[in-house]
Amino acid sequence: VGYLGSYVERPFLDRFAAVHAFDVQFARGPWLWSTTLLASQIKAGDTRKNGTGGFSSLSYKPSNEFDVRADLTRYGNSLDYNDLGFQRRDDFSNYELSPRWLQNSYPDGHWLRSSSVSLDLTMTENSAGRNLYEQYEAAVELSYSDGSSSYFEARYRPAGIDDLVSRGNGALRLKSGATLFGNYESVRRGDFSGFAGLYFDNTALRGRQTFVETGARYWIGDDFNARLGIEASRFRGRTLWRGGNLFGIFARSDSIAPNLQL
């Protein structure tokens, strides 16, 4: 059980803010439950605003090969804890279910060393019952016997709305779409290893986006490397907010560029 609170006064703005956070965690056998409750009290001039919210998670891990987690988040439309930490939005309920399967041992001579498969089901709605965000995601991570690895991810989002992008000027309807991502990291040979990746997205405000990257790593040490790649990207039909309820379409953008990371 724990508590964290803050009290901030800004006399030059005629504003004060008090934020309270209570949390509790309980574990028994394969079960783990944790909950955080939030409350905020804001006064700015003659305006007072009190808000509440919280989030809770329940996880179950009966073995090293399987675990599942359920999350519930609810923020009221007056909750404001930005004086204690970053808050992206208020007025929403979020439901999430995340099962995962792990396999860390394969027979000698098998082409795989380890693997994992995970699912993530998410739904977010506001207090008016509007579907803000819904996503179905599947991911596969593979580690091969030669030391190389790969990661694949697929997401699907049904149609929904975005009630933030227009800054209070109404909700924007979003079309359904999918996202695909995959990358491969080769085994290290001497001081070098290679990589390649592909990303495709045609969801929400992004229009249709394609991104391809390939390159090599130079291993300066076991824990430090220089990563040099070539990136090629293409955007089509990206939605931009211009002001009020006016939106525009960024028709196209193509680029090829080097990328160096240390």
Jot down its keywords.
262 residues; mainly beta; 14-stranded antiparallel sheet; two-stranded antiparallel ribbon; 16 strands
Tell how many strands the DSSP assignment holds. Answer: 16
The low-pLDDT segments are: none
Q: Summarize the helix and strand pattern as letters.
A: EEEEEEEEEEEEEEEE
Count of helical segments?
A: 0
What value does the Rg take, in angstroms? Answer: 23 Å
Outline the biggest β-sheet.
Answer: 14 strands, antiparallel
Describe the structure.
With 262 residues, the chain is mainly β. It has strands spanning 2-10, 15-28, 31-44, 47-63, 66-75, 92-103, 112-125, 131-144, 149-157, 160-162, 172-174, 177-185, 192-201, 208-221, 224-243, 246-261. The strands form two sheets. Strands 1-2-3-4-5-6-7-8-9-12-13-14-15-16 form a 14-stranded antiparallel sheet, with no helix packed on it. A two-stranded antiparallel ribbon has the order 10-11.
Topology readout:
Layout (H helix, E strand, L loop, with lengths): L1 E9 L4 E14 L2 E14 L2 E17 L2 E10 L16 E12 L8 E14 L5 E14 L4 E9 L2 E3 L9 E3 L2 E9 L6 E10 L6 E14 L2 E20 L2 E16 L1
Antiparallel strand pairs: 1-2, 2-3, 3-4, 4-5, 5-6, 6-7, 7-8, 8-9, 9-12, 10-11, 12-13, 13-14, 14-15, 15-16
